[in-house]
Amino acid sequence: MTTATLFDLHGKTALLTGASKGMGKAMAQALAEHGAKVMISSRKLDQCEAVAAEINGRCGAEQAYSFACNAGYKEQLQELVDATREQIGPIDILVANAGVNPFHGPMKAISDDAYDKIMSTNVKANHWLAQMVAPDMVARGTGSMMFTSSVGAFTPSLALGTYNMSKLALIALVRNLAAEFGPQGLRANAICPALIRTDFAQALWDNPKAEQRAKEQIPLRRLGESDDLKGIAVFLASDASAYITGQALTVCGGAHMWR
Description:
The protein is an alpha/beta fold. Helices cover 44% and strands 15% of the residues. Strands 3-2-1-4-5-6-7 form a 7-stranded parallel sheet, sandwiched between helices. α1 (22-33) crosses α8 and α3 (74-87) packs parallel to α4 (112-140). The longest helix has 29 residues, at 112-140. The mean pLDDT is 92.
């Protein structure tokens, strides 16, 4: 009998930010279902604990852990990384899913505070986090980092301009991480979802026009769901993607197939 191990994550430790709901929760569930032990983090501890309990109920005790962390603060990220090492072990997989967008409208109207928050949380904080977890991966000569970007990185927007800029900058960060850490066995990739039915993006999808556009313009004729991120998370975390790094992979139902 042949045993399939290509997507096996047993013995791996995964740290996820923005994982208490939506895409982050779905990716955490998928990694745990394939054997990884996962640290669930977001700003609200009760939500993290609920997700961890759900995963443990499905996958077995001590498969998921929880820790409250605001990903925009360096000291909280370090506390999260330290807690993951102490409670589970050295980090093999990073899923940096946390992001913010406190402003909708033209860039000429954005305040300095909103601009700084978007760029700091969506870009600089991910740089911090990557540097914090990299030593564990360097020591083992292997590891996978994945960062949630957006198809918005590929286009300008009159309403989401600064957010899109931050997501394009995040792809540039991923490419540099791939170049710098590749010789030491680490991989870094960006996941670029299109419009997904999450609380974060509800203002964009919860209207008849969005549904109509999906039915007419998206090749798969539907909007994305959080569970659509499960497969790519497992793929990028596992040996199935052993020769893939520095990429921006779209999850878009075909809407951005030429990007």
